[in-house]
């Protein structure tokens, strides 16, 4: 029996048939001694894949790209992007899409290896990835999925048996990423400057066919696509703000047209509430700080709108006017939805004139008093781990009294509020110190902390005794937590 039949791969590759200018066909560079670190069984199942009869040795060969499945058509995608505001030609410098797999309900997913060797887009990079950053992507992307936030997912990580040279030699690894597609704002930016003017329309038609076939027959498909993508990105960034997620590198090449969170590099979750929180060591000006994320989302969407200008109307001026108006609506829609989201976090039903003040006052108090973002909402849901003096503060108690008065309005009941709050406020997030602990152990061949952490992150809204060890922020320290791109 062939591997495909045993495993269930159903490749149906469409992106690889796009014009040559949009991609390069090439295979992953084989690695010396691949070894499986982790395989995501529940995701496999969801994809209609079954690896149970495949030996560890063959799994390692499969997920390193040493043994390509039948039907794969391996490519590196070309794209461009604004990195920290500056336009650059990029492309998959260390990633290869092996194909598009159709799951049982005919849902299409890109299967991509990250860290699979040099490509024509590698620039000065080695095309490789290290174990720590690949496991970090695995942990955070799976956590995001279980938090109910659209995201690419992680199917497997293998060690390559080769060192990657960074500041010091690190253990080389490859991550298998599963995405609805890897079409980014930057892919459109690349098509706009392509030699062949037809590339943009080709990519546009392809994107609509693949992601939004419902607007295929629209008289204004470019306007519709812009509106849909804006809507998806507003929802996405609201989810990030809800759970305290900081992406860290919101370049236009890291914004997916599907609306999934993509590219987990220096991302991390905020613990103490500070809107200016930045973890990434390379984000020196705080461009991608927590509170800047909605503004940057809008900025990136404006770049997407610019790409669509030739497709909106024959008259460029009219196009620009339409696109500008649509993008400018972002702020008002976002603000309205942000208040709705925060109201849910506080269990408020309906809308009252005092709500905005109530929300802002809590955030201001949290900021001033260095309160933990996640755990403050846990406290309000009576899901506190241990007594914390911070909540004895008189200003907080005054605020709480006002909040409790407000809760009574609009036919509310304590049960209704609590239910709303419990479904919007996670009890557990991937705490930075727990992620680091798991990565350090994995780098020393101990996978237990990683497996335990992943298990806990599967049910972030449910209470259980097991999660208690994972709910506290790191003890105070002089060291500011920093993350790195892991390139
Ligand atoms: P990212 O910050 O992960 O979005 O990466 C930005 C660009 O750098 C993309 O084109 C990546 O493919 C490329 N890149 C990142 N790391 C490497 C590497 N080690 N070798 C080659 N290209 C890389
Ligand atoms: Mg990227």
Notes on the protein architecture:
By secondary structure, the chain is an alpha+beta fold. The chain has a domain of 179 residues. The strands form four sheets. Strands 2, 6, 7, 8, 9 and 10 form a six-stranded antiparallel beta sheet that branches. Strands 1-3 form a two-stranded antiparallel sheet. A hairpin with a 3-residue loop joins strand 9 and strand 10. The chain is globular, with a radius of gyration of 23 Å. The two termini are 39 Å apart. The mean pLDDT is 96. The structure holds adenosine monophosphate and magnesium ion. The site of adenosine monophosphate (AMP) has 19 residues, from loops.
Q: Helix and strand string, N-terminal first?
A: HEEHHEEEEEEHEEHHHEEHHHHHHHH
Helix- and strand-based class?
A: alpha+beta
List the uncertain runs.
Answer: none
N-to-C CA distance: 39 Å
Number of helices: 15
């Amino acid at each position: 029996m062939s591997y495909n039949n045993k495993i269930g791969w159903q490749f149906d590759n469409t992106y690889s048939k796009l014009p040559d200018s949009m991609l390069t066909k090439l295979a992953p560079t084989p690695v010396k001694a691949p070894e499986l670190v982790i395989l995501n069984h529940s995701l496999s199942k969801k994809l209609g894949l079954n690896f149970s009869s495949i030996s560890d040795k063959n799994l390692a060969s499969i997920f390193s790209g040493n043994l390509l499945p039948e039907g794969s058509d391996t490519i590196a995608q070309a794209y461009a992007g604004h990195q920290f505001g500056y336009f650059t030609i990029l492309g998959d410098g260390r990633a290869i899409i092996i194909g598009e797999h159709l799951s049982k309900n005919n849902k299409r997913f890109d299967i991509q290896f990250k860290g699979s060797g040099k490509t024509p887009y590698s620039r000065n990079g080695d095309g490789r990835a290290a174990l720590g950053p690949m496991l970090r992507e695995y942990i955070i992307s799976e956590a995001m999925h279980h938090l109910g936030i659209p995201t690419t997912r992680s199917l497997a990580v293998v060690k390559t048996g080769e060192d990657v040279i960074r500041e010091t030699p690190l253990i080389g690894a490859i991550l298998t990423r599963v995405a609805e597609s890897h079409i980014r704002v930057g892919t459109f930016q690349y098509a706009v400057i392509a030699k062949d003017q037809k590339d943009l329309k080709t990519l546009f038609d392809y994107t609509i066919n693949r992601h939004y076939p419902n607007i295929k027959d629209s008289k204004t498909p470019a306007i519709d696509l812009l509106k849909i993508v804006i809507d998806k990105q507003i929802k996405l960034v609201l989810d990030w703000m809800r759970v305290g997620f900081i992406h860290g590198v919101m370049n236009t090449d890291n914004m997916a047209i599907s609306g999934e969170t993509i590219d987990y590099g220096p991302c991390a979750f905020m613990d103490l509430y500070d809107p200016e929180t930045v973890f990434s060591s390379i984000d020196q000006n705080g461009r991608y700080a927590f509170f800047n994320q909605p503004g940057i989302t809008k900025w990136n969407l404006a770049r997407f709108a610019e790409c669509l200008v030739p497709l909106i109307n024959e008259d460029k001026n009219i196009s620009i006017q339409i696109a500008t108006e649509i993008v400018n609506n972002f702020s008002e829609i976002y603000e309205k939805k942000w208040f709705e989201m925060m109201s849910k976090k506080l269990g408020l039903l309906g809308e009252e004139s005092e709500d905005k003040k109530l929300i802002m006052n809590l955030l201001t108090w949290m900021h001033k008093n260095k309160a933990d973002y996640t755990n403050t909402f846990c406290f309000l849901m009576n899901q506190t781990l241990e007594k914390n003096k911070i909540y004895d503060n008189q200003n907080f108690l005054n605020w709480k009294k006002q909040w409790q008065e407000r809760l009574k309005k609009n036919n509310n009941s304590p049960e209704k509020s609590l239910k709303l709050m419990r479904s919007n406020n996670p009890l557990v997030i991937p705490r930075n110190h727990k992620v680091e602990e798991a990565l350090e152990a994995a780098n020393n061949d101990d996978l237990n902390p990683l497996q335990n952490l992943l298990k806990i992150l599967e049910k972030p809204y449910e209470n259980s005794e097991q999660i208690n060890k994972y709910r506290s922020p790191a003890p105070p320290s002089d060291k500011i937590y920093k993350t790195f791109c892991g390139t």
